[in-house]
Write a structure and sequence with these properties.
Blueprint lengths: L2 H6 L1 E8 L5 H11 L24 H6 L6 E7 L2 E7 L7 H8 L4 E7 L6 H12 L4 E6 L8 H12 L2 E4 L1 E4 L7 E4 L4 E4 L13 E3 L4 H24 L5 H5 L3 E6 L8 H11 L6 E2 L4 E2 L7 E9 L8 E9 L1 E3 L4 E3 L5 E2 L5 E4 L2 E4 L2 E3 L3 E5 L9 E3 L10 E3 L3 E7 L5 H14 L3 E5 L5 E5 L2 H15 L3 E5 L4 E6 L3 H10 L4 E3 L5 E5 L2 H10 L4 E3 L1 E3 L5 E2 L1
Parallel strand pairs: 1-3, 1-4, 4-5, 5-11, 6-11
Antiparallel strand pairs: 2-3, 7-8, 8-9, 9-10, 12-13, 14-15, 14-23, 15-22, 16-21, 17-18, 17-23, 19-20, 24-33, 25-27, 25-28, 26-27, 26-30, 29-31, 29-32, 30-31, 33-34
Helix pairs in contact: 10-11
């Protein structure tokens, strides 16, 4: 097996956007164009009979939103594409952040009517920090939207990189005629609602072709002038600048109408990078190494409610994975031999015999694997960069039926370990505390406890407003602090100890009184390693 050749075929990317920009719809259409699905689900209505292939959780089908990351693998033009759809809602930014650590590129979706929105900016900052290459898709051009030149300028100013248009819209809204493919010198004609791959009849070749001016009049004349201006004034596309996260190719289209999707898919295959090296604490891991390494970046419980399963999503970092091979969990030193490893097309799973760097594989397990765990063929490695953020909202949780207390603890432990919510066990008292980044996380957890674990949970206000994980060089200093603040001490799902404060003032006082104790706003997943 030629590992470098297989690695070169891989493209692993995430789709990011603000809520309602059309990200899940675009995911559907990419699957459609790659031949992975035959019919695209609709996410326009909460009551739609079909649902997006990437939205598998019951609450997602009811609300028409994505609240969990989905993984899909498909083949297109001799490339193996690992596509990760992320939740757009800001309340689930932790899940999105974890996914962005597992990809080599990102596809940013922008609503042409709203431009660059706040959640998009937050996600872009994560991508910029990692120098992740970004391809931009400006969606919903078949609606009344903003001027494309204004959108281009806004993209550049907000994301701090050069925006290089690969296509340009001709008209918008009701007079949307199509997009001109600048690099291939041809116009793709807009025909709404066609669930098919384009053929040659959809194109008119040549920017100077008189047929375009005759058919589309003022709309084409305006686009023609803008394309000429961009050709003369814009920075030319540079592959190295794109790979370094300094340039973004920009496409225009309408995902709901399958329009402009083909160009994005082709560019992902042609321009996006294959898997690169990964930084571990011990060394740099190269993707074409002979030995297998992989990291758990996501744990999802109950993807199949009838089996009460629990799947660890592993990004393969190097080597050749084979079903049944012996793997060591670096955190515990335990050995596992996964025989029922799966690849995904969202809910649909296929048994997997092998995988290479860049692939995302699913390992069903019963609590053996946690977020951040590293799997190797024996080497002790710890990959960095999977942080757990200190929660900003807290609620106490009790079970309505005391006889279901065990199910509540099992459910919360599993949901906490998968990162859906942060669960704290107070040192004093028996009432569990839930910590979240956003309010919607509480609603999702309550819903999942009821539907997946049969537990009716009561969520109640908590007096705590912030948390900090604590550590000290001298264990005696840590014990002294914990003994003096018993009412504010709690343990999370990996038994890392945290100080829960009722206000920022209380935290400041604690920091002043105990200068030898460190207070951390984040820790790394799957471990008690703290970051400053």
């Amino acid at each position: 097996m030629n590992i470098p050749q297989e690695v070169a075929r891989r493209r692993t990317f995430a789709i990011i956007s603000h809520p309602d920009a059309g990200k899940t719809t675009l995911t559907e259409k990419l699957l459609l164009f790659a031949g992975a699905i035959q019919i695209a689900g609709s996410v326009k209505s909460r009551k739609a009979s079909r649902h997006a292939s990437s939205d598998w959780m019951e609450i997602e089908k009811q609300r028409g939103i994505s609240v969990a990351s989905s993984v899909m693998q498909m083949e297109y033009r001799d490339c193996v594409i690992n596509l990760l759809d992320t939740p757009g809602h800001q309340d689930f930014s932790e899940d999105t952040y974890r996914v962005l650590t597992a990809v080599d590129a990102a596809l940013m979706v922008i609503d042409a009517a709203n431009g660059v929105e706040p959640q998009t900016i937050r996600l872009l900052q994560v991508c910029r920090a990692r120098n992740t290459p970004i391809i931009t898709f400006v969606n919903k051009m078949d609606r009344e939207v903003r001027e494309p030149l204004d959108l281009l300028s806004e993209i550049e100013s907000h994301i701090g990189m050069d925006a290089v248009p690969f296509s340009w819209p001709v008209g918008m809204g009701r007079s949307f005629r199509g997009v001109f493919d600048i690099r291939n010198d041809r116009m793709r004609l807009f025909r709404p609602g066609q669930d098919r791959v384009s053929d040659e009849d959809d194109f008119i070749h040549g920017l100077e072709n008189p047929v375009l001016a005759e058919r589309f009049g003022e709309d084409f004349a305006k686009a023609h002038g803008e394309i000429e201006l961009l050709t003369e004034a814009a920075v030319p596309f540079d592959q190295e600048a794109f790979l370094a996260g300094k340039q973004t190719p920009v496409f225009f289209g309408s995902a709901i109408n399958n329009f402009g999707v083909q160009e994005v898919l082709d560019t992902l295959v042609e321009r996006a990078p294959p898997p690169g090296s990964r930084r571990a604490v011990e060394r740099e891991v190269q993707p074409d190494e002979g030995k297998f390494t992989g990291v758990v970046f996501k744990v999802q419980a109950n993807m199949d409610p009838s089996h009460r399963d629990r799947v660890a999503f592993v990004r393969v970092s190097s080597g050749h994975f084979q079903r049944g091979m012996r793997l060591k969990v670096s955190r515990t030193g335990k050995e596992i031999r996964p025989n029922n490893v799966v690849s995904f097309l969202s809910q649909r799973r296929d048994l997997l015999d092998e995988a290479f760097a860049g692939d995302v594989i699913g390992i069903p397990n019963h609590g053996v694997l946690h977020l951040g765990d590293v799997l190797t063929e024996g080497e002790a490695l710890q990959f960095t960069g999977l942080p757990f953020f200190a929660p900003e909202l807290f609620q106490a949780v009790e079970v309505a039926d005391p006889l279901r207390s065990k199910q509540l603890r099992i459910g919360l432990t599993q949901l906490g370990e998968e990162g859906a919510i942060q669960v704290f066990r107070p040192q004093a008292g028996s009432t569990l505390l839930l910590g979240a980044v956003g309010q919607l996380q509480f609603e999702v957890v309550a819903h999942r406890l009821k539907t997946e674990y049969g537990v009716e949970a009561r969520l109640m206000p908590s007096r705590y407003t912030l948390a900090r994980w604590i550590s000290a060089e001298n264990p005696a200093d840590l014990k002294k602090f914990m003994d003096a603040n018993v009412a504010n001490m709690a343990y999370d799902v990996v038994d890392a100890v945290a100080f829960l404060a009722t206000s920022s003032a209380q935290l400041r006082v604690a920091q002043e009184l105990y200068p030898k104790v460190q207070f951390h706003a984040l820790r790394e997943h799957g471990s008690r390693v703290f970051a400053s």
